[in-house]
Amino acid sequence: MAAGGWSDGWRGGLGGGRGNGGNGAAAGQDESYLVSVSDLMVGLLFLFIIILMAFALNFRSAEDAAEATLEELVVERDTLTLERDRLEVDRLELAADRDRLLAERDRLALITGRLLARDAERADLLRRIKAALSARGLEVEVDLESGILRLPESLLFASAEAELSGTGRAAIVGLAEVLSELLPCYVGVVVGQACPGGPLDVLEAVLIEGHTDDQPIRSGPFADNWALSAARARSTYLALSAAAPRLEALQNASGAALLGLSGYAARRPVIDAPTEAARRVNRRIDLRFLARGPDAQALAELLASLEAALDEP
Fold first, then answer.
1. How many Å apart are CA 56 and CA 165, to the nearest integer?
2. What is the torsion angle, in degrees rounded to the nearest 10, for the CA atoms of residue 234, residue 240, residue 245 and residue 247?
């Protein structure tokens, strides 16, 4: 009984000793594990702090860059705003210049249109004169572009003479009657005559021009072709005025006498050639119908406006 108890006690003591040793080892392992986890946590925390600091630095750098970019964008916006305002001012100035130039263009077109209309009305007058003379058996030439009615020497004068022949005087009487009927409706102011469509302000002057050939005068009362051409123009003018006194009283819209005369000798040939055929054509009386130009004041104002527009920077 005693022996059994001792044996159990010894085993129990032995077992108990082993048991305490095992617990000690386990406790050491637990402690080492806890130390490793603690170190890991400290390392992770340190790494997190480093990452957080790096993130903070990067965020600050990004924030600084964003602020700089924002400032640049604001400056660029302000620059673009100023540029836009400048362009708007330029646009308004260009629009004003355009409107002014368009107005000047319209004024110029009006003046040009009036000039072209006067040329067309003058051509119509010459056609009417030619038709009326043709109805009287008198054939003449007209140059519609230059506004000229042409009477050959053979119709009016003997060679080197300034006195109208009988045939010439009859032709001038017929011409005077036609001109007296038609001209008043083309000078803008008509008294005592009905004009279809009303009077037209077309003519500035009607010049009676004497022309000779290039052969010098060797005898007779005239010293040279200048004197002969002027004398022939004067004879024609006086015959027209005598046949139709109304012609001498005609005035243009400016109040100046409508009829005038000039002599050109051989300075303005129709055909510039040293042939007898050319000389025969060049010996003539021309009636040059001068169309009125644009209103001088309106033209001066237009030119001043255009010069001012061109001088602007």
1. 123
2. -90
Angle value at C-alpha 89, between 83 and 94, nearest 5 degrees: 120
The burial of 255, by beta-carbon neighbours within 10 Å (0-12 exposed, 13-18 middle, 19 or more buried), is given as exposed
Domain boundaries, the chain: 111-298
Which percentage of the chain shows pLDDT scores above 90? 56
Most distant CA pair in the chain: distance in Å? Answer: 202
Which of the 8 DSSP states describes residue 223? S
Q: What is the pLDDT of residues 27-64, one digit of tens each?
A: 556 666 666 878 888 888 888 899 988 888 888 888 88
Q: What is the DSSP letter of 216?
A: P
> CB of 184 within 8 A of CB of 193?
yes
| Displacement of CA 54 from its chain's centroid (Å) | 69
Reported as a single tens digit per residue, the pLDDT across 108-119 is: 777 677 778 889
What is the DSSP track for 182-209? HGGGGBS--SS---TT---B-EEEEEEE
Distance CA 67, CA 59 (A): 12
User: Which H or E run contains 218?
Assistant: none
Cβ neighbours of residue 252 closer than 8 Å, sequence gap 6 or more? 187, 188, 203, 204, 205, 258, 292
Distance of alpha carbon 246 from alpha carbon 222, whole angstroms: 31
List all residues 6 or more positions away from 236 whose beta carbon is below 8 Å from its beta carbon.
Answer: 151, 156, 164, 172, 208, 210, 261, 285
**Domain 111-298 grouped into CATH 3.30.1330.60:** yes
Residues of the chain predicted below pLDDT 50: 1-19
d(CA 48, CA 27): 31
Is 140:150 a contact under the CB 8 Å cutoff? yes
Per DSSP, 165 falls in state P
Q: Which pLDDT value is given to residue 3?
A: 44
